Amino acid sequence: MAKIPFRNPILFGVLFSLLLSACSNEKSLVNFQKTNKNQDTISITTAYVPKIQTGDILSIYVNSLSPEASSFFNPYKAGVTSNGSTDNATSGYLVDASGDIELPLVGNIRVTGHTTSQVRDTLKVLLKQYLKEPTVLVRFLNFKISLLGEVAKPNVYNIPNEMITLPEALSMAGDLTSFARRDSIQIIRDVNGKKEFGYVNLTNRNVFSSPYYYLHANDLVYVKPSKIKARQNDRSFQFVTLGISLLSLIIIIIR
Predict the structure, then answer these.
(1) Most CB atoms within 10 A, among 142, 160, 169, 244?
(2) Hey, where are the domains in the chain?
(3) What contacts 98, CB < 8 A, 6 or more positions away?
(4) Using CA atoms, how far apart are residues 185 and 151, in angstroms rounded to an integer?
(5) Can you give the pTM of this predicted structure?
(6) CATH code at 57-140
(7) How far is the CA of 90 from the CAs of 58, 93, 146, in angstroms?
């Protein structure tokens, strides 16, 4: 029976290091791990409801018992499809620096600080003097998020339903790569004219109660590369790895 060639301390050290590294990497790739304080049920943070800000673009579609009269209030009618969804390629109502939009006949309406449902209700009341049984659909045309770094498909993504969680966004981007740092995902958010930098540990179940679980409009999600990838891009590390591999191969051949 052949003896296992572990008498050589160099070869044994290399193989043992590889084994430890494999075990460590496996744990770092698992999301939503349970800690001693976690239970099988965890409360999630309050759902994010976006509010209109200066510079937003709104799609407003008006309908009533008189389609001809309603069409007068729909200068951007082409932006709405037959099923009521909006076409982001079509211009809508730009919220100006004063926080207003301007509708035909109705005039200027202050919309900043309000939700789309609140603006919808306001418009229904104002339009009753012009239309019978008016209905209004108000949507964001510029609700988007950006994903960069160690994701399969980094890109800017438009969110039609105006609500998305961090796990959903990562799934949309094709999930994290094997070189991603799951314990320090960075979210860069615009808050009152300033950039807010937050971090999420995706390997911990507490992500569901994080204020960054629900992404906000214009959030930037940056996934950092792990130290392993940084080392792989380092030429000195590549030469050391190559040297160890060749040395291990020579030792195996000699034995």
Answers:
(1) 169
(2) 57-140, 143-230
(3) 108, 110
(4) 11
(5) 0.71
(6) 3.30.1950.10
(7) 10, 10, 21
